[in-house]
Write a structure and sequence with these properties.
The chain has four helices and seven strands. With 183 residues, the chain is an alpha/beta fold.
Length: 183
C-alpha cells in the first residue's frame, strides 16, 4: 500500500512539473490572429470583422461551474464599464452545453452586460486546459500579449489593458484610497 501511495505521489509531482512545459508549448502554437464565426446569447452574429470597431479586445474563456471564473465577473464588468468608451471590449466565451439556465443565473447575479459568445471550434487553438483563460486581440484580429490563465483583480486587469497603450485617452478612474482618502 505504501509503495502504491509513493508511486501515485511521484506521478502527481511529475504531472505538476510537466504542466508548465505543456503550457509553454501551447503558447508557441497559438495562432497570431483570431478567425471565428459564432453568435452571442441574443443570437447576434460575431466574427473577427466585428472586432474592427475596437482597439483592444479581451476574450475571457470561462465556465458557469468555475468559482474563479464567476468570482471575477463583477471585476470584468466594472473594467468593461470603465473602458468601453475608450475602444475596449470584453467577450466572454463559455463552452459547457446544456447549462443555459446556470449561465443565465450567473450573468444576472453578476449584472454582466458585455457580450457572451457561444464557443466554436475556432477557439480551440487558444485553450490551455484551464479556466478562466484570457487572450487579448487588437482591432485587426492580431493576438497580442501573453495568454493569462486564472482570475485577476480589477487592478491587475486594468494594469494589463493599459499597458498595451491601444486605448483612446479618457478620464482616469480613481480607486478608493489612491487620492489620500479624499472622495
Amino acid at each position: 500500500m505504501k509503495k502504491c501511495l509513493a508511486f501515485l505521489l511521484c506521478l502527481c509531482l511529475l504531472a505538476g512539473l510537466c504542466a508548465p512545459m505543456a503550457l509553454a508549448e501551447e503558447e508557441e502554437e497559438r495562432p497570431d490572429t483570431i478567425v471565428f464565426s459564432t453568435t452571442d446569447r441574443e443570437d447576434e452574429e460575431w466574427d473577427e470583422d466585428a472586432l474592427g470597431d475596437y482597439k483592444l479586445i479581451m476574450i475571457n474563456f470561462w465556465e458557469p461551474w468555475c468559482p474563479p471564473c464567476v468570482g471575477e465577473m463583477p471585476e470584468l464588468e466594472k473594467l468593461y464599464e470603465d473602458y468601453q468608451e475608450r475602444g475596449f471590449l470584453i467577450l466572454g466565451v463559455y463552452s459547457t452545453p446544456g447549462m443555459e439556465e446556470e449561465v443565465d443565473e450567473v450573468l444576472a447575479a453578476c449584472e454582466t452586460t458585455y457580450p457572451i459568445l457561444h464557443y466554436v471550434e475556432a477557439f480551440d487553438a487558444f485553450q490551455t486546459g484551464y479556466v478562466p483563460t484570457t487572450i487579448f486581440v487588437n482591432g485587426e484580429g492580431d493576438v497580442i500579449g501573453e495568454t493569462v490563465i486564472g482570475s485577476r483583480s480589477y487592478e491587475v486587469w486594468e494594469s494589463l489593458i493599459t499597458a498595451f497603450e491601444l486605448l483612446d485617452e479618457g478620464p482616469v478612474t480613481l480607486i478608493a484610497g489612491e487620492d489620500g482618502g479624499k472622495a
